[in-house]
Design goal:
- The chain has 2 domains: 169 residues, Rossmann fold (3-Layer(aba) Sandwich), CATH 3.40.50; 170 residues, Glycogen Phosphorylase B (Rossmann fold, 3-Layer(aba) Sandwich), CATH 3.40.50.
- It contains 13 helices and 13 strands.
- Strands 3-2-1-4-5-6-7 form a 7-stranded parallel β-sheet, with helices on both faces. Strands 10-9-8-11-12-13 form a 6-stranded parallel β-sheet, with helices on both faces.
């Protein structure tokens, strides 16, 4: 039977330039929200509105929301296109994970005053008063004028939006005191600066051939898994990120004894799973997040983006079983994997 309750619309984008972190965390939240709505007796349909990026659409086709995805124009008619979707669906709530710094008034003008407005984008934390403004990041942020911390605005470790699969896997204890057998490398969905190549150079420079490395190439990146397999023979297994499910990605991450990740969602996943982690910043925002994690002692920060800097950080982690244990325990305690459940409750309370 088709639901008569008003829908919830997620407005989010992913691409080679943007990466896929916003899309992935929106899907994590949408999966949890759908389950929690059903538990509470609500049947609000969940729709996605995205620009027509091929990788974004491929990921959505594998999700529970493939049949409820709408396309937003990718040109100057974006706002008008989204307005048409709003008119078609008449949503009860709109969840945006796009940066509204330069287009907030335009987007907000499209929404009926009765529509509940939720933001998941860090940049919106300082500009939207909002019904519900979430910043799923450990970077320190300032609340927007008119917003109130823990009333309309929520940020920090308790609101990191990770896959529901993370919570199921957190029970497996880390093994940082043992010989390192499995490594994991993933530097984001796009990796436009090709930091993965520098990281591969660092792994080779460290020279520990006892470690078998799983390299996940970003779904929105331009890497060729087969070509890299030929160019890097030895203890490397290359995975095309676009062909992997989130469950298989998390499974590989959870099996690793050490990880090298960027400063986005995968960093939080690695910490939540208690993996000894080396973190590489791909931009200033990630650098601020990683610096916070390093101060806490939850990861090793790569000081710079050169292969030499990565070699030093990885060698430091591999050379100290005690350090691996401490990092694993601090990360695991810091990120509990319940962020989606907390945000879903906030959303349902407002419905």
């Amino acid at each position: 039977m088709q639901s008569t309750e008003q829908p919830i619309v997620f407005r989010v984008d992913g691409s080679h330039s943007l990466g896929l972190g916003h899309l992935v965390r929106s899907l994590n939240l949408a999966d949890t929200l759908r389950a929690e709505l059903r538990k509470s007796g609500k049947q609000n349909p969940i729709n996605f509105a995205v620009k027509p990026d091929s990788t974004t659409l491929a990921i959505l086709r594998k999700s529970q929301f493939s049949e409820t995805t709408r396309l937003v124009s990718s040109d100057e008619d974006e706002v008008e296109s989204f307005a048409g979707i709003m008119g078609e669906l008449s949503p009860r709530m709109v969840v945006v994970d796009i940066d509204l710094t330069d287009r907030g008034p335009e987007y907000l003008s499209l929404l009926d005053p009765q529509v509940v407005k939720v933001s998941l984008h860090e940049h919106n934390y300082g500009i939207l008063p909002g019904d519900l403004v979430i910043a799923p990041t450990m970077r320190p942020l300032t609340v927007a004028p008119g917003g109130t911390e823990r009333v309309t605005h929520f940020a920090g470790k308790d609101y990191i939006l990770l896959s529901p699969d993370i919570q199921k896997r957190r029970e497996k204890p880390a093994k940082p005191g043992e010989i390192v057998c499995i490594g994991f490398l993933s530097l984001g969905g796009a990796d436009p600066e090709r930091f993965t190549m520098r990281a591969l150079g660092a792994i080779r420079a460290v020279g520990d051939r006892r470690i078998n490395w799983h390299i996940v190439l970003g779904a929105a990146s331009e890497y060729d898994a087969k070509g890299l397999s030929r160019g890097f023979p030895g203890p490397f297994v290359f995975h095309a990120g676009g062909d992997m499910s989130r469950e298989s990605f998390v499974e590989l991450l959870n099996a690793a004894d050490v990880t090298i990740v960027n400063g986005g969602t995968t960093l939080y996943e690695s910490l939540a799973l208690g993996r000894p982690t080396v973190a590489v910043a791909q931009n200033d925002f990630e650098a601020a997040v990683i610096a916070q994690m390093a101060i806490i002692g939850a990861c090793i920060e790569v000081e710079g983006t050169s292969s030499k800097a990565m070699t030093h950080a990885l060698g430091t982690l591999l050379g100290s079983p005690d350090m691996r244990l401490q990092i694993a325990q601090k990360g695991n305690r810091l990120i509990d994997g319940q962020g989606c459940a907390r945000v879903a409750k906030l959303i349902i309370d407002r419905l």
